[in-house]
Amino acid sequence: MRLVLARLLLRQLPGQPLAQVLVTLGISFMAADFCLFVWGGDPINVTTPDILAGSVHAGPAVFPLYRLAVIGIAMVIALGLWLLLDRTRLGAMIRAGVDDPDMARVVGIRVSQLFTIVFALGAGLAAFAGIIGAPILSVYPGLDQDMLPLALVVVILGGSGSLLGSFVGSIIVGFIYNFGQALFPELAYFVLFLPMLLVLLLRPQGLFGRFVP
After folding, report:
1. Backbone angle region of 138, left / alpha / beta, with phi > 0 → left and psi within -120 to 50 → alpha
2. Backbone angles phi, psi at 7, to 5 degrees
3. Where are the domains of the chain?
4. Phi–psi pair at 62, nearest 5 degrees
5. Total-model pTM
6. Which of 40, 52, 158, 210 would disulfide-bridge 169, Cβ 3.0–4.6 Å?
């Protein structure tokens, strides 16, 4: 399904990131309604695996073992993506296709096929994130709409196309959003979107994004 979406829709909108975002957003709305029609709207609680059901004590602090495992998995995936993009021939091809797709095609890189693979990889990682996050958040209609604003803020803060920016932006957003909900619950979204507004005003390319004149 992801490959079909990338080939039939996104390929028709090359170099139009806003249009691509709107198309994928519309598809997500339709998919959410289809899931609601087929499976209903009752929340699904996913149990934590028994092997990770305990907690770790560090002085007065207590850390759920499953959350530590999720953090560890996320760090391994981040490291793997960095190695893929910066240390492999495939990563060099991806960077060349993003920086100068016309020149990449001249040297024999199949840019459209490459971007289809990248899109499928990103969708697969998003699905995997949903699987490992289900025991923490549970599964309910509208969960995707709760996560989309957070993902948007992460990309804008870190900078589009920057893996380091996504890593740093996700940490910043995680701290800001959780502390905002705890200290100012009625202003949680204001606290979340204020840094994004400041970044858009002062550094539109994001903290680690490259400036494109």
Report:
1. left
2. -75, -40
3. 142-213
4. -125, 125
5. 0.80
6. 158
